[in-house]
Amino acid sequence: EVTKDDPDTAFCTLANREELNPEEDSIHHCLYQFTRNETLTETNKLLCDVCTQRHCGPKNNVKSEKKYVYTNAKKQMLISLAPPILTLHLKRFQQAGFNLQKVNRHIKFPEVIDLAPFCTAKCKNVAEGNTKVLYSLYGVVEHSGTMRSGHYTAYVKMRAMNNHLSDLVLRGQSQASDTEPVKGQWFHISDTRVQPVSVSKVLSSQAYLLFYERLL
User: Helix or strand or coil: residue 57?
Assistant: First the structure.
């Protein structure tokens, strides 16, 4: 879908990205890199329909003449609709020659994360004037082993029902909520074994999937 936004606000976010200094090997750094502003030049230039029609005349003549106009452009991927449930999937493999190699290093992630620096300034389901889009961690999937074999385990927080989250899922409404992590007990689940664990144990895991529920 092509939209014609105001060029002055097209690349603006709910919160100032310039104030961010994301620590490397953190989920904030991953999100910052994923949503960074890119310049498309040379072989990555954008095919511009408007420029092509202006240069070649009516659209019905363009294909026959095969004259296309490419132009430099800016590209940025931002969140336009904040989801009730945020699922972050970390890429845990990299190319090593002709083989795939698992990435085992620890990626830091918080109990509460603010998506505002990664949301468009006109995010559809964020109330006007809000500069925070907060999420609380409630689940983690961890993989141990190699690319060929291994074992999946999970960390899940047992907590009270989040009425605010229910409103978001059922009615799409967003109201003010607490900015603290949702209170509850964490459990580690491995096959049929379930045991309580501390939040520090959860935050030290090598996350493969992260699950957050929206607070604000």
Answer: coil
pLDDT digits (tens, 9 = 90+) for 98-116: 778 888 889 999 999 999 9
The two tokens of residue 82 are: 């904040």
pTM across the whole model: 0.81
**pLDDT tens string 120-153:** 998 888 888 888 999 999 999 999 888 778 899 9
Q: Is 91 helix (H, G, I), strand (E, B) or coil?
A: coil
User: 136 in helix, strand or coil?
Assistant: strand
The tokens of 95 are what? Answer: 């190319």
Distance CA 185, CA 206 (A): 20
Measured between alpha carbons, how far is 71 from 42 in angstroms, rounded to an integer? 9
Calpha distance 90→140 (Å, rounded): 11
Domain ranges of the chain: 79-214
**Are 72 and 41 contacting, i.e. CB atoms less than 8 angstroms apart?**
yes
Helix segments in the chain, DSSP class H: 27-34, 49-56, 59-65, 163-171, 199-203
First to last CA, the chain: 28
Q: Output the six-digit token pair for 23.
A: 């620590």
Specify the fold of 79-214.
Cathepsin B; Chain A (3.90.70)
Q: How far apart are CA 209 and CA 108, in angstroms?
A: 13
CA–CA dist 87, 133 (Å, integer)? 15
Whether the pLDDT of residue 1 is over 50: the answer is no
